[in-house]
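Appendix B. Chain record.
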Amino acid sequence: MITRQRKTWSYGVAAAALLLATTGCSGTSADDSATSGTPTAEPSVTTSPPSTTESPSDGSQPTATDTAPGGTPTASDGAGDGAAPESTRCLTPDLAGSLAPIEGGGSAGHYEVAIVLTNTSGTDCVLQGWPGASFVGDGDGTQIGAAATLDRSSPHEPVTLAPGDAAHAVVLVSNAENYGDECRQTPADGLRVYPPGETRSLFVQDDELTLVGCASAEQELLEVGAFQPGE
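Structure tokens predicted for this chain:
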């Protein structure tokens, strides 16, 4: 009897051990479920790239006109005003100049002379507008006094010069003695002239004319009109 009971107890213990072993193999722990289950999707993070355009610190917007354009120098007040396009304009090296008296021109205390420019090139060219002009002296082209002002009441249509043709601009000259001692009268050799639109000058004179300027730039003795056809 004792032997049989011991065998029965042994079988029961073995069965219980087998059951526990089977249960342990098929079970899962909390840690196992986190690693072996379906993974949780990571949250998506979107970042915007930094802007490559910076506004000025003062809030202003740049414009195309912020760059300073290049200007064309003028040789004297009003020189080249109303000038023809460069493609057709009469250029200084292609012109010959002279100074001619105008009989009966002017008024009390004034007289008139004409600046005459002749086309010496082999092609047509255009003069349009007013020349720059000033007295020069001392035998070396030194400017005397103020440059000429412009007579804007004169017509200034384009004047086309064929080779050998000429145009003239009338200069109203005030007598230097009108201005007394403040003028500081100075003999002039002739006029320095800038054709319209040009920064290169030429010298014009007439040996029969006696020209006197004012060394003081406060007295404006010359007023020039626009170029007209003919001498």
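Further analysis of this model is presented in Appendix C.
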